[in-house]
Amino acid sequence: MNQQIGRFFQQAAEARRTGRNGEAQAALTHILALQPGEPQALNMLGMMALENGDFHAARMHFLGATQSDTGEPALWMNVAAAQRGLGDGEGERAALQRAIDIDQRNFMAQMRLAQLQQRLGEVQAAADSWSKVLAMSSGMGDLPPQLVDTLAEARGFVTNHQARLASFVEDGVAPLLADADLRSQRRFQACLDHEFGRRPLYQNQCSGLHYPFLPADEYFDRDHFPWMAELEAKTDAIRAEFLGLIEQQGGNVRPYVRQDPGTPENKWTALDGSLDWGAAFLWEYGVRNEAVCNACPQTVAALEALPRADIPGRAPSAFFSLLKPHSRIPAHSGVTNTRAIIHLPLIVPPGCYFRVGGETRAWEEGQAFAFDDTIEHEAWNDSAHLRVVLIFDMWNPHLSLAEQQLLKQFYATADASRAQDALGAGV
């Protein structure tokens, strides 16, 4: 930019600032005489015309500026503003799309497009565009109050649209869904809930061995455990043995959470060493607790009749889980997805719940279920009474017998290697 043009720009800016639009226009006209098509001068003339409500002139100047500076999205945004003033919705759409084609991250262009689509009654397109705008805004810092209000209205629009769409779709699939088996119903309903933003999907979070390609199923289908009904039939006997156990010097109940000394404060700190969540183990990592097992022969017989995992130092585990009134087990995930965890509820007052991933259930006495504990889960007892569940582990039902044997050999070999290393270190 030469000095003469620079002086004219300064004159135009000062004149416009003080409301002397005629002088500003004259200075800009001089610039265009010296440098035809100068985009900044054309843009300033367009802005002045826009402010005066002369949308035809504004559009002409802005389009002229875009011919000289084809890669500036702000110029196309200004074209869109002029087109809107003229009531030309398609012209506005085309200009906004040009700005977006230059920079897909142009927040204001995306927002103006969503507003245009909403004004034109293009409900689905507007909902999609507003969803994109809301996603973009989540990473932005402090927003001006007017924009905050606009985004709040956008959330309401998207939410209402999703609800209407969900209702329409659910009405359409209702007859087929009603005829489907329970497994298909549960999985398809979870699909709908996720699609319409009503629930997240959770994946395995293994702190130990993560076995590939197993389904990340929050609750396993009962079909995988044909013995479950027979176990449920023994609920009364198992409960009676637990109550008898408790009468014997507290039933060998100990805090479930026992952290090493010096462990930094974490989500388990409140339960560390506390009987708010207590456990009476029959087996713990493959080791039998004779005192508890001897007091509960029918429970032991019921468990030993099941095809449990047998991995020395790791499995099986089985225990009575006691959750005191108004206590909560925080959200967490387990060690390995090679196992399934079984709950047989024994004593369940109202107000006791269990969540795995996106599904929350109320325990019901005598109704067992299986879940993958490497998917985030939590439990709470909002009642004024004790909640008791028999908990034990099984193989993940999606593992073949060959895979189970391979895993047992893997652990045996790994443990032997560690033992050999320990012996070698002492030589």
Task: Summarize the topology.
Layout: H1 3-17, H2 21-34, H3 39-51, H4 55-68, H5 73-85, H6 89-102, H7 107-119, H8 123-137, H9 145-179, H10 182-195, E1 219-220, H11 228-232, H12 235-247, E2 254-255, E3 277-284, E4 287-288, H13 290-295, H14 297-304, E5 318-323, E6 327-332, E7 339-347, E8 352-356, E9 359-362, E10 369-371, E11 377-381, E12 387-395, H15 401-425
Helix pairs in contact: 1-2, 2-3, 3-4, 3-5, 4-5, 5-6, 6-7, 7-8, 8-9, 9-10
Description:
With 427 residues, the chain is an alpha+beta fold. The protein has two domains: 3-161, Serine Threonine Protein Phosphatase 5, Tetratricopeptide repeat (Alpha Horseshoe); 219-418, B-lactam Antibiotic, Isopenicillin N Synthase, Chain (Jelly Rolls). Helix content is 51%, strand content 14%. It has 15 helices and twelve strands. The protein has helices at residues 3-17, 21-34, 39-51, 55-68, 73-85, 89-102, 107-119, 123-137, 145-179, 182-195, 228-232, 235-247, 290-295, 297-304, 401-425, and strands at 219-220, 254-255, 277-284, 287-288, 318-323, 327-332, 339-347, 352-356, 359-362, 369-371, 377-381, 387-395. Strands 1, 2, 3, 4, 5, 7, 10 and 12 form an eight-stranded antiparallel sheet that branches. β8 (352-356) and β9 (359-362) form a beta hairpin. α2 packs antiparallel against α3 (39-51), α4 runs antiparallel to α5 and α5 packs antiparallel against α6 (89-102). The longest helix has 35 residues, at 145-179. The model has no long low-confidence stretch (mean pLDDT 94).
